[in-house]
Amino acid sequence: MQKLPRERLAQIERAERHIESLQREKRDLDDELERIRVSEMGAHSKVALLEARVEEREKEIESLLKSNNEQRTSTVHILQGLLDSERAAHADANNRADSLSLQLQAAQAKLDSLQQELTSVHLNETALDIKLKTASHGKCSRVDDYEMGMDSVQDMEMSDRSVRVNKRSRSNTSPLKHTQAEDGGSVFKGDEDTRSQQTNSEDYRKFTVTKIKQELTKYNFGA
Question: Per the database entry, which stretches of residues form a coiled coil (predicted)?
Fold first, then answer.
């Protein structure tokens, strides 16, 4: 009879220890569950934070992409404008080069023509100088012969008439010519025809040189 209560008491004690053990396990599980809940809440918080950062980053990337696209579009437009300007400038430069080439050819042709004209003027001047020297030498000889003849005529015809001889001034640069006066006398005067030809030649040479300078200045060859 006493053995049964002891066994029951032992069972009760074992049951109580088991209950205490279960209660400790339950508390441990509760603590673990609480830690898990806290950890889960922290994880949710981190996830929310990361999602917010990701969203913000996506917005930044989208904004950067949009700005990059706009900048790229603007750059393309600028480059296209520069390319068009470069093409226009290249075409204008080619046109200007062609125009300048034509102007240079025209100027060269005019210069060649003026050079030939100037050469012709020099040749004419040389021929005129030779002619003037020859004419001057011949006229001086004729004047000396005429003076000698006039002396003889004066000696022979002193009683019939008086011979008037105008004084003339001799010049190294202006040859003289002899003309017959209305009363039969002799008059000496400068060679106006020869001087006129020489003056015309000098005027023509000045005109030609001036024309050449104008053509050179017109085409920017020596201003």
Answer: 12-124
